[in-house]
Each structure stands twice: as structure tokens, then as C-alpha cells.
Amino acid sequence: MADLYFAGVDVGSLSTDVSIIDHSGKVLSEIVIPTGVNGSEAAEEAFGSALNLADLTREGITAITATGYGRASVAFATGKTTEISCHGVGAHQLFPRTGTVIDIGGQDSKVIQIDSHGRMLDFTMNDKCAAGTGRFLEVMANRLELDLDELSSPLNIKGESAPISSTCTVFAESEVISLLAKNTPREEIVHGLQRSIVNRIWSMVTSIGVEGEVTLTGGVAHNKGLVALLEEKLGLTLNIPENPQTVGALGGAHIARRAYQSNLESPTN
Ligand SMILES: Nc1ncnc2c1ncn2[C@@H]1O[C@H](COP(=O)(O)OP(=O)(O)OP(=O)(O)O)[C@@H](O)[C@H]1O
Ligand SMILES: [Mg+2]
After folding, report:
1. What is the 154 CA–ligand 2 centroid distance (Å)?
2. Is 225 in the pocket of ligand 1 (CB under 6 A)?
């Protein structure tokens, strides 16, 4: 089955991610760009860049799965699948012993249990507010005048952490403002914010339980300080993909490949 290629396109609230694989599952290219205001344009641009990188043409792609909250805007997709399924399959492909996936993206966070084939067994998610998400960190980075890399610092892991008691982003931002007014060191505030997200994730994890290895996906997996705190809280080492933002797109590409190879249609929704 030579010369068959499959793609996954994940239009998220903050990033649009594309993964292109061949018939054996080998990754040929991966792209992450900001979604901006137009998901359909972002999907076109990211797909075009991923094709260029893989030295392929659009006609050369056999099947394309769209996922993410903006999946309906991907006109060129041949199938659509939920993010939950895509993150499960993507995490399974990268770390086959994964039993639990934690995805912390821009606008929601999810904990997903998967079986030994990467199929979703159960999940819980927070999509009601920005608390416990990348957006929460971005609002606070802005307020602290730090860029995302500075906010992700693994420094001060064992150090003091400023108390951030509000889970609501708006109230937590007010707390940050008063901590700054009291000259609280910014690294203590960063530590407190990371801890606040970890506590949010922890309550989701305890409601669903942990099975097998735990793989962390989504852009917040780039935040080294938060990863260290989450590992400490869970008492285990997390699997961190090299490119955590493209795991959903990778899962989408594998779903397209599996559907084609078993001659079934991708699930649509
Ligand atoms: N280099 C980085 N360092 C630290 N954090 C980062 C970095 N890159 C991205 N992030 C975090 O990742 C978040 C975006 O994650 P991601 O791209 O997975 O979101 P998304 O898939 O668009 O959102 P959703 O799935 O909720 O629709 C940002 O809000 C930011 O907090
Ligand atoms: Mg996402």
C-alpha cells in the first residue's frame, strides 16, 4: 500500500495544527499556527504549509480528518471526529501504554480514559470557563508582563508560591493585581498560578481516576513548571510528546488512515 497519505487538521481555539502521515503511520510533517479569527483560513494555511513541508500535493492526500472546536470550518476534510477521540488515538500512537490522556488546551481541559487500542472509554472536561486552561495562563502572563516562555519557567518549583484562591479567571486576575501591588515576587505568583491550574486538573483526575501511563497533550504541556507540579501532585512521570499541540491532529490522521484501511467511513458529527 505505497504512496498513500493521510492528514489530520485540528482547528482549536488558539492553535490550528496539522499532521500528515503515510500508510505506515510515519509522520511526514507537522504544523502549528495561530487560529486567529478565521478557522477556515487557518486550516487552509496550515494544511498548505504541511503539504509543502512533506513535499506533497493536496490531490496526493487520500483522506483528511478534521477535529477541534472549529472542525466544521474545514471544507476540504473527508471526515470529522471529536477532539476526545483524536487525542486518545494520537496519545496511543505516541505512547502505546497510555491509559489516561490529560489535554490542556487554550479554552478547555479534558481527562480521557482510553483502552489498549486508543479508543475512548470515558472522559470528563471543563469547557465552561477559562480556569484551568491555557487562556488562563495567557491572561495572567499579560498581566505579569511575562511572555509564555517566562511563565513556563521550571525555576522555583520548590520555592514559595503566592496564594491564588480564586478559580475564576477574572477574580484570579484581581488577586494577581493585588499581589503585584504588595511587591510579591513574580516567580511566586507564577508558581501560584501553575498550582491553581494543577488543582483544577487534579479535581478532574480524581473524578475519573487514573489508569495506565498518563500522557499530557495540548500547548500547556510546554509549561515546564506546571508539568513538574502536576507530576508531583499525581506522583508519577507524565509522557510529554515532543510536539504536544499536534497530538489531536496526529490522532485525526490515524483515524483517517484506519478508516481507509478498513474501508469504513470516519465517524461524522
Ligand atoms: N511555548 C509555550 N510555552 C508555554 N505555553 C505554551 C506554549 N505554546 C503554547 N502554550 C500554551 O498552550 C495554549 C494553547 O494550547 P493548544 O494549542 O493546545 O490550544 P487549542 O488546541 O487551540 O485549544 P482548545 O483545544 O481548547 O480549543 C496557550 O494558551 C498557552 O498557554
Ligand atoms: Mg486543542
Report:
1. 23
2. no
| Ligand with an atom nearest the CA of residue 194 | 1
User: Measured in angstroms, how far is the CA atom of residue 265 from the centroid of ligand 1?
Assistant: 30
30-58 pLDDT, tens digit each: 999 999 999 999 999 999 999 999 999 99
Ligand 1 pocket mutation, candidates 9, 13, 14, criterion most atoms within 8 A of CB: 14
Per-residue pLDDT reduced to its tens digit, 177-219: 999 999 998 888 888 888 889 998 999 999 999 989 999 999 9
- Domains of the chain with bracketed CATH: 1-95+246-269 (3.30.420.40), 98-240 (3.30.420.40)
Does the C-beta of 81 come closer than 6 Å to ligand 1?
no
Nearest CA to 197 out of 109, 127, 125 is that of 109
List the 98-104 sheet strands across, edge first: 120-126, 109-114, 98-104, 213-217
Spatial separation of the C-alpha atoms in residues 122 and 217, rounded to whole Å: 17
Kindly state if the Cβ of 218 falls inside 6 Å of ligand 1.
yes
CA distances from 164 to 62, 63, 140 (A): 49, 46, 12
Q: Using CA positions, which residue lies closest to atom 30 of ligand 1? A: 134
